[in-house]
């Protein structure tokens, strides 16, 4: 396939000029937002002035990732992090999945499996000896930014789950971003993480729970679809999606039809772009974006038959709310045991991004997550002892 031409903002000196102009504009925008939200209607009445301004600020800055191809907080996938640099987790190498597990949509002559970093929560934990639930965590960032290290703010999610729930051990996968390798690199790295638990460490898949937020919440359904379609490894016990990015087609539809604009687009901090999807696609045809692999909310009827329990979390102020509604509706129609947790006045990735609204939603979600995992753990132990 002919290589796609990137946007003009990907090339210097226009790239530098665009970034500079957008950042300088904040000198006028931040004071104006402050005055506006002080005197007039706020996006949500419960939001503080600080929260309103921060959400607008992030919404303004976020397009730089997709429009300019920058990857903030990207980590080196070749560096072994010394244990002395880590306080809460242990660095591990995740070896590439065996070639016999790489088939179908994961098989690509131009994008190959590779060794990637991983982090085990808590520090010093021995996953192989764990007898309870074990999590496999995928961070968010639109496949454009972020990492799996404990210093990344979104690691608040595995941190809290490991500390306060029945899931006491979690493997965080530092998968490749789109700027490092296009699809199917992310799937290959997710598969390597899952294979590490099942094959290398000999874990029973019935005790593994897939966890993901934002793009990680896209990667979880992608990995699950692959496992169910290709049957290269047994499926996990359950999955948890936090503010998941589910629809990779909608951004192209919006270009042609503005009536398809995501709800809460002017309220949420999230600013999505088809340019990020093009970088993710790489040399592949855009037609694959509408497949059940890459747009789970567009899965045909009966596409989720025999899926395990799924927990879906979203804020009602999120731009992803509509596609989460669509996914949950399809899961329920297919008989999946799905728990849908919708938090009032919560913005995108509110459990992972502590600067966005709001604390009350975070507290409610945390309790619901811990309770759901307690019930899942009880069921798993009951089955194991039968």
From TrEMBL:
Keyword Transport included in the entry's annotation: no
Keyword terms of this UniProt record: Hydrolase, Membrane, Transmembrane, Transmembrane helix
Transmembrane stretches, start-end: 20-40
The organism's place on the tree of life at top rank: Eukaryota
Domain Alpha/beta hydrolase fold-3: 136-351
One Pfam family matching this protein: Abhydrolase_3
InterPro entries (alphabetical): AB_hydrolase_3, AB_hydrolase_fold, GDXG_lipolytic_enzyme
Keyword set includes Transmembrane helix: yes
Name of the protein described by the UniProt record: Alpha/beta hydrolase fold-3 domain-containing protein
Source species: Hohenbuehelia grisea
Taxonomic lineage of the native organism: Eukaryota, Fungi, Dikarya, Basidiomycota, Agaricomycotina
